Amino acid sequence: MNSAAHFSARLFQGRRARATVRVVMISVGSLLGPINSLANPGVTPTSPLGAGPPTATMRPAVITQHSGVFNGLRVAYTATVDGIDVADSKNRHGARVVTFAYTVDTLNGRKVDTARRPVMFVFNGGPIVASVYLHMGSFGPHRVRFPEDPQAGNGGWQLEQNPYSLLDSTDLVFIDPAATGFSRVAPGKNPADYHSVVADGQQTAAYITAWLRKHGRLDSPKFVFGESYGTHRAAEVGRQLATAHEPVLLDGMVLFGQAVNIAEYSQRPRNIISYVVSLPTLAATAWHFGFANREGRTLEGFIAASREFARDEYLLALYRGNTLPPNERERIAERLQEFSGISAAWYLQNDLKITKEHYRAELLKDRGLLLGRNDSRYTAKIDERGTGPDPSNVLPQALEQAFERHMRQTLKVDWDEPYIFSAGVGGFDAWDWGAKSPFGDWPYVDSINLLMNKNPRFRVMLGTGYHDTQTTIGAAEYASTQSGWPAERTRVHEYPGGHMAYSIDSTAKTLGDDLREFFGTVP
After folding, report:
1. 461 pairs with which residues across the strands?
2. Rounded to an integer, what distance in angstroms lies between the CA atom of residue 261 and that of residue 471?
């Protein structure tokens, strides 16, 4: 399988769409793969959407009381695992959505004003994966702490109370879309009805509205946090909430590992902007593996220099194509070697371009190593075809194992129905992304413009890991500068780490601090 096909197949799995539908009963489970049949060799494709029971069992909510210290504050909170039935776009029973909610009762012994307290709805991508990864990797009250060494493998992680949890600043609701977690489509419902950005967003918007009404939180500051494909979902959810018969206006949206400008992100050979915006990620990776000249430089300075070169020189060189003079072509190739670690000769033989997928296989080829896709700091032995499973898959695997323990032991969920991490959608092309022809568009950015116009308080934050080869820091900057969003209401943050940048302790802390400032809840 060529790397271009492999890349497009994995584009939206984020970390989260893995390749076999696996369930949590009591046992600790097996490895994951990609979303569809263009999977890594030796990995079983996903089962159809809706695998498992056709509908969730109607069970009483599981409610437990807890306390912890988050951001230096003593927090008493309630954990609730519960489901809400939501209608589809034709007002028929669509799905029962089961979520994990953490709502704060007291801060340092003082009762909180629940009606005015922020609430953030959190979901991963896929499409169609559970929210386990953000739940256990970043914001939940318990978090997996990973070894600092990316090569430590799947061992050495610890599940512990999360000092970086946002519960000091906001309540948290982790959403599992229908056919993941304990959420299910309604009996008789065609699972393919939810195989689109619009229908998936409708389900999530319906759930958010129902949860806010059920808990008397319509006046609370409201935020959504989406990751990877979840950034498409976030934009669509915001649009549908704002244009509903009884509108619900969000106060903010966080796009982590954003993909809302996916047309610019896909590395087709003649999409020159994709090579330009990807260069800073290659530079961060080259720095990590010692290919960069570090004398008198910092990582941030090196990335900034690569970004400036990409914008001011590389873009023009690619635009000129075969009219670029040979001496200028050689100069550009040498600068590309400086920033990426790939030889100038390689660039001269390949039209001054290297895809991120080729880069993963090429940089450490002489050592027989493949770089991680979700996090390029991770490596593993490359196979004879020059590919292999994503070495950074050790991160989501650990989070899934930890979630089993957290769900059963801490939250006391003893339901015997399967908890599903990932449900397939029948292949990449089975999902309706919105555009119907080569002349169409993917107007996810425009949905956020609508929210900006409807609510003067609304703001957006983009966060990206330096070492994420799927949703890159350059693509996030490009989304921001080309979006039309007011600069004073748009914040762009970059962090050490990959698609799951918060797997690094220092990044988890910084991200939490950035979000508190974004919420307006800094003490």
Report:
1. 254, 491
2. 10
Q: Residue 291 has which token pair?
A: 């290919």
The contacts of residue 422 (CB under 8 Å, 6+ apart) are 16, 17, 18, 19, 20, 21, 22, 32, 35, 46, 126, 128, 129, 130, 180
pLDDT beneath 70, residues of the chain? 1-57, 153-154, 263-266, 521-523
Which helix (H) or strand (E) element contains residue 275?
Answer: helix 272-288
Quick: pLDDT tens for 401-424. 999 999 999 999 999 888 999 987
Strands 252-256 and 459-465: parallel
pTM here? 0.89
The count of residues in the chain is 523
CA atoms within 13 A on the CB side of 266: 14
What DSSP line would sit under 397-453, residue for residue? HHHHHHHHHIIIIIS-----SPEESB---SSGGGSB-S--STT---THHHHHHHHHH
Indicate the DSSP class of residue 46: P
What pLDDT, in 10s, does the model give residues 11-61? 333 333 333 333 333 222 222 222 222 222 222 223 333 333 345 467 899
- Residue 59 structure tokens: 């069970």
